[in-house]
């Protein structure tokens, strides 16, 4: 998750690490360069997945749609979410991209990692449906587009929408701050806890359950 200039968020350690007192400038440059290389490779790899999956006219199964959706979500993470985070790391005390990007674009990037996780869960459940329950590919394919739509809507409402409500853009003393400001620490903790449960604990449980059932089915076959 991407939360700039706020010590209570994971990326705050990155932003703080760019301070000259804590880390040499060359180390920050190396970190950003390696991260940019990794993101570039990831974007290219996911673009290939999109091309290959989109060109596969023979087997238009539900799992192909979920893989395509996963690749698109990952491209959003690598090409949009991470560059904005890198910008915060490079210039932690001054947001240079303006009010519009801060207030509208930056919060929206929270949707991409959640959509990626949702796609992984959908793939696991689809495999469980096909192998354990024996449901036909045609039937699962007809609902795949609705599942994908639900993934994106749920991702937006649970992750991005709350940040829209608290994202602040402030200019003072020659610095520009772009960061979420929750009404209270309790509200902030509640948001972080709900995100951890909804987008980590529950998805992990569903994925493990699905593949455990698949393993049992294969072993008994």
Strand content: 5-15%
Given the C-alpha coordinates, what overall shape results?
Answer: globular
* Helical residues, percent: over 70%
Output the number of helix runs.
7
Structural class: mainly alpha
Strand order of the biggest β-sheet: 1-2
Q: Could you name the ranges where pLDDT drops below 50 across 5 or more consecutive residues?
A: 1-20
Query: What is the N-to-C order of secondary-structure elements (H for helix, E for strand)?
Result: HHHHHHEEH
Termini distance? 42 Å
- Sheet bearing the most strands, described? 2 strands, antiparallel
Radius of gyration: 20 Å
The average pLDDT value, as a whole number, equals 84
Describe it.
The protein has 221 residues and is mainly alpha-helical. 74% of the residues lie in helices and 5% in strands. The protein contains 7 helices and 2 strands. Strand 1 and strand 2 (175-180) form a beta hairpin. Helix 2 runs antiparallel to helix 3, helix 3 (62-90) packs parallel to helix 6 and helix 5 (111-131) runs parallel beside helix 7.
Could you give a quick summary of the protein structure above?
With about 220 residues, the chain is mainly α. Helices cover about 75% and strands about 5% of the residues.
Descriptors:
two-stranded antiparallel ribbon; mainly alpha; 2 strands; 221 residues
List the helices and strands and how they pair.
Layout: H1 12-17, H2 25-55, H3 62-90, H4 98-108, H5 111-131, H6 137-166, E1 167-172, E2 175-180, H7 185-220
Antiparallel strand pairs: 1-2
Helix pairs in contact: 2-3, 3-5, 3-6, 4-6, 5-6, 5-7
């Amino acid at each position: 998750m991407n939360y700039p200039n706020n010590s209570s968020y994971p990326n705050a350690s990155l932003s703080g690490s760019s301070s000259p007192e804590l880390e040499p400038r060359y180390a920050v440059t190396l970190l950003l360069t390696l991260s940019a290389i990794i993101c570039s490779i990831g974007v290219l790899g996911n673009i290939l997945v999109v091309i290959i999956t989109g060109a596969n006219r023979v087997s238009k199964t539900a799992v192909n749609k979920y893989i395509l959706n996963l690749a698109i979500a990952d491209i959003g993470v690598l090409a949009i979410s991470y560059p904005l985070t890198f910008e915060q790391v490079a210039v932690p005390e001054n947001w240079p991209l303006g009010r519009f990007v801060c207030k509208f674009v930056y919060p929206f990037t929270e949707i991409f990692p959640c959509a990626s996780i949702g796609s992984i869960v959908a793939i696991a459940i689809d495999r469980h449906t096909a192998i354990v329950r024996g449901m036909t590919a045609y039937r699962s394919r007809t609902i795949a587009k609705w599942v994908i739509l639900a993934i994106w809507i749920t991702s937006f409402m649970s992750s991005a929408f709350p940040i829209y409500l608290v994202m602040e853009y402030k200019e003072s003393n020659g610095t520009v701050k772009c960061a979420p400001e929750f009404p209270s620490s309790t509200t902030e903790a509640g948001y972080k806890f709900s995100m951890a449960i909804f987008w980590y604990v529950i998805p992990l449980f569903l994925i493990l359950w699905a593949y455990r059932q698949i393993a049992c089915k294969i072993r008994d076959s």
